[in-house]
Amino acid sequence: MNFLLTYFYVCLQTALCLAVITNQPLLVERLLQLGSDVTTQIITDAGPQMPSKHEQPLHFAARKGVPWLNMLRVLLRSQHVDIDVFNSDGLLPTCCFYTHVTRIQGGQEKQRDSTYSGSINANSS
Question: How far apart are CA 83 and CA 94, in angstroms?
């Protein structure tokens, strides 16, 4: 049954969404150059008896945090990206990223380093 649900949600995705979900920034960059819509919604299964989540690729990548910085850079370079849109949880992309970073730091002493400050710059490569 899980396979069928996974297959169902994968079938609803665009090529851009699948490239974002699988963290392929070069493919995303090319798809955006060819005119893919960066504001299309990624649909993720939230689990049994829970509504599915809808979010833009930028939210999805931001939720994944630091390992997805290259993807975030590619998405932020798009002319049509909207950083002021909320996902189905009511969060902005910056909030999704911050939530990930604070979850990673957990019980550790919170240190501010260059990894977390200013790393999501659309002009850096």
Answer: 8
Listed in sequence order, the residues at least 6 apart from 114 whose beta carbon sits closer than 8 Å to its beta carbon are: none
Which helix H or strand E contains 31, and what residues bound it? helix 25-33
What's phi and psi for 54, nearest 5 deg? -125, 130
The domains found in the chain, sorted by start residue, are 2-105 (1.25.40.20)
Per-residue tokens: 87 = 């996902």
> 56, exposed or middle or buried, with CB in 10 Å at 0-12, 13-18, 19+?
buried
Report the alpha-carbon distance of residue 60 to residue 38 in Å, rounded.
12
Cα dist from 63 to 19, 30, 57, 96, whole Å: 16, 22, 10, 5
Tell me the C-alpha distance between 63 and 45, whole Å.
15
pLDDT per residue as tens digits for the range 88-102: 889 999 888 888 777
- The mean pLDDT value for 69-91 works out to 92
Distances (CA, A) of 42 to 22, 48, 113: 12, 18, 31
